[in-house]
């Protein structure tokens, strides 16, 4: 009978967390151990970041017994989810948390890289900011070392602070055997089977960027240092003068009547 009561109490204690983890859209989260949640040291500073902190903590740990209306309950529920997310960011960089996230990573529960050359390599959730309400969660591929948006709209609204900016790097420091070989394959553009001349493409891009920069510098009246800059200025001035002459001829010899140009 004592064993039965103990098992029932344990199930009840983890009820809210079980509900949260099993809810649609929360697949990226792992379950935080109860002893981690009840250790106040692990929650240092969160009382100033979460509204109704104590009620939210009681709800997460399933000791909430406040008799309140639905609106208040919903507010506390929202705070509980936010609190869980903030604690989650701290928990997943612990030994136990890393092990749980590693298991999800191996099962590709966070998704697979959409880049063809990565051959469906599993992804890891990551944040671009450690402070909440700044950036949504992204997915990191260790093979191409790039980040991607989640496919599901349910996941794309998760706060990136719930995973932090360091977790996806720490896990490979703790488990170096997981570091994949980098993808050296690159897409090669071709026209009718022939490779597009890469240097020519690069030169065109560089020329375009140089011209844009020189125009910006001229507008700011800054000497660009290019030798042929004066020639370009003279050419542009002559073009402007020609355009002005054409405009003057139109005004003197013709005009616009009834919406038509008369010359």
From TrEMBL:
GO terms for molecular function: kinase activity; protein kinase regulator activity. GO terms for biological process: regulation of transcription by RNA polymerase III. One of its GO terms (cellular component) is cytoplasm. The keyword Ribonucleoprotein does not apply. This is Casein kinase II subunit beta. Tetramer composed of two alpha chains, one beta chain and one beta' chain. Tetramer of two alpha and two beta subunits. Keywords: Kinase, Transferase. InterPro entries: Casein_kin_II_reg-sub_N (IPR016149), Casein_kinase_II_beta-like (IPR035991), Casein_kinase_II_reg-sub (IPR000704). Regulatory subunit of casein kinase II/CK2. As part of the kinase complex regulates the basal catalytic activity of the alpha subunit a constitutively active serine/threonine-protein kinase that phosphorylates a large number of substrates containing acidic residues C-terminal to the phosphorylated serine or threonine. Belongs to the casein kinase 2 subunit beta family. Residues 226-263 are annotated as: Disordered. The keyword Kinase applies. Residues 228-250 have a biased composition (Acidic residues). Coiled coil: none annotated.
């Amino acid at each position: 009978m004592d064993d039965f009561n103990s098992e029932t109490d344990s199930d009840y204690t983890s009820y809210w967390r079980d509900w949260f983890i099993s809810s649609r859209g929360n697949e990226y989260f792992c379950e935080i151990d109860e002893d981690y949640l009840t250790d106040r040291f692990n929650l240092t500073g969160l009382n100033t970041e979460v509204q109704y902190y104590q009620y939210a903590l009681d709800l997460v740990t399933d000791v909430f017994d406040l008799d309140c209306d639905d609106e208040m309950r919903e507010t506390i529920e929202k705070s509980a989810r936010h609190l869980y997310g903030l604690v989650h960011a701290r928990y997943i960089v612990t030994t136990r948390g890393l092990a749980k996230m590693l298991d999800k990573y191996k099962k590709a529960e966070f998704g697979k890289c959409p880049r063809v050359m990565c051959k469906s390599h599993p992804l890891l959730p990551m944040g671009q900011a450690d402070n909440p309400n700044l950036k949504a969660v992204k997915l990191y591929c260790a093979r191409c070392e790039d980040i991607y948006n989640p496919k599901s709209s349910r996941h794309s609204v998760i706060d990136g602070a719930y995973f932090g900016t360091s977790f996806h790097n720490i896990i490979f420091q703790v488990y170096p055997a997981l570091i994949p070989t980098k993808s050296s394959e690159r897409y090669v553009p071709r026209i009718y089977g022939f490779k597009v001349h890469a240097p020519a493409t690069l030169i065109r891009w560089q020329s375009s960027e140089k011209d844009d920069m020189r125009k910006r510098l001229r507008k700011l009246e800054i000497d660009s240092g290019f030798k042929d800059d004066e020639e370009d200025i003279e050419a542009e001035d002559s073009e402007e003068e020609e355009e002005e002459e054409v405009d003057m001829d139109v005004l003197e010899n013709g005009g616009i009547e009834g919406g038509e140009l008369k010359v």
